Amino acid sequence: DTGVSQDPRHKITKRGQNVTFRCDPISEHNRLYWYRQTLGQGPEFLTYFQNEAQLEKSRLLSDRFSAERPKGSFSTLEIQRTEQGDSAMYLCASSRTGGGNTIYFGEGSWLTVV
Amino acid sequence: DAKTTQPNSMESNEEEPVHLPCNHSTISGTDYIHWYRQLPSQGPEYVIHGLTSNVNNRMASLAIAEDRKSSTLILHRATLRDAAVYYCILRDTPTTSGTYKYIFGTGTRLKVLA
Asked: Distance (Å, rounded) from C-alpha B4 to C-alpha B42?
């Protein structure tokens, strides 16, 4: 069990640039989640995949955000035309069906928009 | 919205037990109670979960009230490494698309005094 892996861990970008984060879930986990966390707050749900299907998107996920999970394995979260308000930690988590549905988080990807 | 209520912060002395309370008065019969903790600059770490009965693992114990409207995470001997934000969360009711969401509140910040 190698855990949930996220890349890059840190990203500094200029406002208006596009950024992409990658998440590799625990192998055989069919469910994948993206969350966003700002300082002093708990993680906020962004989107959920079951296998390759994106089943739900939060209203927090504006049209500048897009997430994919081709082939039901790794996932990417892209933010286009970044704004300073996008600065946050982006967390990926995965789980498998059953077992109390415990989700396991990665270490997060920190985004700073300058 | 988060379905749990926790104190904002708590303090404990090192080597002493810590009882972290959580209220979840609107819990449904199928909701699992999950506890996570988050160290600075890291993703949330799974601690323990339960449904009805008390649970023990190597990290902590979870005591669940008989009516399931509250629970308590017990750290038997707090260490400095246990200083973190502790989140009590319920798995949200599945949406019509089959999504299981975990809604975080702001958690309890535990300070451990040497």
From this structure: 22
